[in-house]
Amino acid sequence: MKTNQWWSLRAKIVLPYILFALLLAIGAAYVGTRVVFDSIEERYVNQLIEAGKLASEWKVREENRLLATQRVLAYAEGIPEAIHASDAERLRELIYPVAVNNGEEVIHVLDRQGATLLSLYRRAQGNLEEYEFQRGDDSFKQLPFVQRVLQGATDSAGDKHAGIARGKRGDYVYVAGAIFDARGKSVGVGLVGKSLGTLARQMRETTLAQVTLYDHAGQPLASTLPQPHSLNDPAARTAALAPGQSYTHDWIASDIAYREIVGAWQLRHGDALGFVGVAFAKNFLVRISQNTWLQVLLSVLAALLLVVAIGFVISGHIAHPIVQLEQAASRVANGNLKIRVEPTGNDEVTRLVQQFNQMVSHLDQSKSDLIAAYDATLEGWVRALDLRDKEITGHSQRVTDLTLRIARALNVPAAALEHIRRGALLHDIGKMAIPDSILHKPTSLIEDEWIIMRQHPAYAVEMLQNIPFLRPAIEIPGNHHEHWDGTGYPRGLEGEEIPLAARIFAVADVWDSLLSDRPYRKAIPVEQARKIIADDSGAYFDPRVVEIFFKIVDAERAPTEIR
Question: Which domain holds residue 124?
């Protein structure tokens, strides 16, 4: 059966060359002409197009970065109050760290009437932490995109707007959005910007091409070229404003020929701010001589004849490792990253086998590294929760260890233990949404506060359900306050409706909480805690889980009896 498969593959390798050799030889002249005379220019054009794509992708990333900073301003604590009080010094204290941490060049804060309360400009010759502060520049409120923010206008992309501002300090592109107080009411406007010169330089670093930013009239605003030119074709400019459209043109500057691809410059999916041009020099475009063309054509014909002559001989040697590769690739596609193919020769196919093995090994390592990175991030979240709730430091790790011991005693499959571990570590992730005034209250909570506190499992589900890596671990964060008798929250599940992982964790969580100091009480003795767990078996807790739990606790307290 294997021989038949190999022969079929051999036929597919050899017969096309035999049947079409004459046709390929006849067509070689045409193909050779296209390859010889056009391939260099095609590569050049493709490189130019690719540079344009890189520029577009970079603009999107930069827009998202500016938007992220603007969102920090929009919802940062203290800024709305400082705007209400027109307290420029307080604004400086709050905004300066944001500017430094995010590496922003310029930030402006306007009040609800559009008056500039504070402006931060990075010093041109200073380091990344040196800024100039000023106030009183009311020119921004006249800008159309700022007016739209002040008026509360929205578009398909939301309530953020972008535009260009030209002034004494230079030309800047801004992302502007409202700043909200705790009630969600707009109290002012935050603008985050970058100079056009910096934009052009950074785009050049990304694309390795010359970059020019133009206004709507085609006049250069900023460029990495020493002598930028203008876009003098109105029809082409109009066509380039259409979504997904661009055009190319050639020009000469300082005796160097350039070709530039020009497209619309848009932010926030709104009206175009102008145009972006990406250009490469055409110096290396050359035409190959007729003799070179003949040499290439003869080489192609010789290679075709050689392939036909030896194809049948080598096809058998090629087919066998290819079949092995196909089978191994199928197993990799099904998730087996431990598979390897044994190299059997010293040719291109063997190198392909080696590269396949290396690729699968890297995929396996990358998967392990990714899981390790996720777990490290998860543990970081847990440490952050512990640091936020200093009264129960180490609670998450202790209760996780105990949960895993109970799960193993209940013969939970090994594949599920990792999800249980992650869910246990993140069981209180929803408390990140609970106000400190409630979470850290030293006395018992009142009913209204309990209503808020009981929402933390729902917050946990909302946080984790869109993270595929953590979705299997959501059973504990979302259900660890459900009770065996159906009196728990948030969904009032009863009995085995509650996931087993959550039932196990509920016992471990209460046990550790009883033995730990809490803001509203001190830790209680072990025997008293044991009685509480026993009394609540069948009410709050799964009796089978409680039984296994007590066996574990008794074994740990009397190790000699176990031996």
Answer: 76-199
